[in-house]
Backbone:
């Protein structure tokens, strides 16, 4: 298996509401058959009906709302950017589930959830290199 | 907000088991403080204790196992590659939740779940361009 991800699909209860949320944050995508595709670097973030996504995966969808076991993160370039982005998300209707603060590891981050409860950590972690195009490179931790 | 993802973190119940699963599929990463980082193109796939991830997100973790509302996908270059990858995943301990088949849209795909139930769709969709480095470009659907 190659070491890469092609799509991250968020199951949502209302595609229009979810699209409006991400557009309020500045994302721009294309909608095809009630599916929204956002180009995000070398992969796509996709919004699709949660029921359809579960069915497509061959999985029963019994879980109530709540933490789904996966978190997305966007690393930014300054503590101020963390604050600005969390404030913008809140204005767009997100819930701030962790106010921005310096965490135990020593970097500044906060977390919001989108209208379906999908978690986004916004972090300024100088230990992880961000290229001009936003791509991230894991540092050499000297471990294996 | 820039239109990109820096990290996709999978909450797992046993980091060592989960790491062994992804390594059996050929992934190679670095472990730091019970956290495994895999470079995956311009972002990182991260394995971290589900309880720690929930706490870090400020979210209660009440959900039982089951579909968490997010699916990852890896697009490959042929139908045969879909079959090979699903077979390799099964040998590594994955559950095949959707056997490979041509779906309603007309492309060939199947789905496995990792030891914590995280879903991976493996797809051969010629409509989505894959660069040599594996990065994916959404086609121009002519929609907005």
Residues:
């Amino acid at each position: 298996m190659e070491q890469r991800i092609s799509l991250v699909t968020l199951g949502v209860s209302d595609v229009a509401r979810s699209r409006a949320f991400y557009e309020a944050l500045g994302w721009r995508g294309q909608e095809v058959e009630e599916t929204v595709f956002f180009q995000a670097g070398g992969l796509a973030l996709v919004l699709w009906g949660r029921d359809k996504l579960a069915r497509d995966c061959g999985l029963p969808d019994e879980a109530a709302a709540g933490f789904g076991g996966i978190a997305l993160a966007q690393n930014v370039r300054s503590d101020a950017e963390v604050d600005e982005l969390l404030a913008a998300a809140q204005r767009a209707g997100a819930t701030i589930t962790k106010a921005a603060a310096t965490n135990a590891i020593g970097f500044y981050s906060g977390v919001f959830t989108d209208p379906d409860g999908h978690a986004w950590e916004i972090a300024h972690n100088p230990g992880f290199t961000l290229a001009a195009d936003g791509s991230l490179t894991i540092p050499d931790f000297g471990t294996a």
The first helix of chain A runs from residue 15 to 24. Chain A touches chain B through 77 residues (CB under 8 Å). The first strand of chain A starts at residue 7 and ends at 12.
